[in-house]
Amino acid sequence: SGGVGKTTLAQHVYSDPRIEGKFVIKAWVCVSDDFDVLTVTRAILEAVIDSTDNSRGLEMVHRRLKENLIGKRYLLVLDDVWNEKREKWEAVLTPLTYGARGSRILVTTRTTKVASTVRSNKELHLEQLQEDHCWKVFAKHAFQDDNPRLNVELKEIGIKIVEKCKGLPLALG
User: Fold this and answer.
1) Is 124 within the bounds of a domain?
2) What is the pLDDT of residue 20?
3) Which InterPro entries match (predicted)?
C-alpha cells in the first residue's frame, strides 16, 4: 500500500555508508505506472552512465547498458514499479544479467504480484505499527532517556503526533 515508507527505506539502504565501496555502480530509477521497455531501459542506462543517452532503438540501448555493466558489481533501485507483465520484465532484465556476481536490484512496489513477476529472491512487506508500538518508537526518539514520567502536557502532544503518523515507522523516527 502507499505511504508506508517503501521509497524512504530504499533511500536509507541506497545511501547507507556500509554499502559504499561494495558496488562500482549505484543507480536509482523511478519507474511508476508507465512501463515502456525502451523508456525504462534508457532511464536505467542514463542513471548508470550519469548522462543523457540518445541511442535509437531498444537494441542499441541494451548494448550500451550491457557494455557499461559487464563485469561490474552494481546496485540498482527500481522505485514504485507497477508493471506485472513478465515479458516486459524479461526485456528490461536481459542486459542487467551481465553485471558482476553480487550485483543487486532493489524493487519497491505496492503489489505482491510485481514481486513474483520479477522473481525476487527476498520480499519485505512493510506494515503499519500497532498503536502501543508507535508510542514506544516515538517516545524513544522524542525523549532520549525514554522517561515514563513525562508531564501530562508533553504526553498529550506526543500522542497527537503519533496519531498523525498513522503507524508509519519512518514517520515516527
Assistant:
1) no
2) 83
3) Apaf_helical, NB-ARC, P-loop_NTPase
pLDDT tens per residue across span 104-131 = 988 887 666 656 656 555 544 444 555 5
0.85 exceeded by the pTM?
no
Amino acid identity, residue 15? S
Please state the domain count of the chain. 2
Q: How far is CA 1 from CA 62, 72, 82, 107, 110, in A?
A: 32, 34, 12, 14, 5
Is 53 part of a structural domain of the chain?
Answer: yes
Residue 101 shares a structural domain with residue 138: no
100 and 159 both lie in a single domain:
no
What distance in Å separates the CA atoms of residue 136 and residue 116, rounded to the nearest whole number? 34
Domain span at 162: 131-171
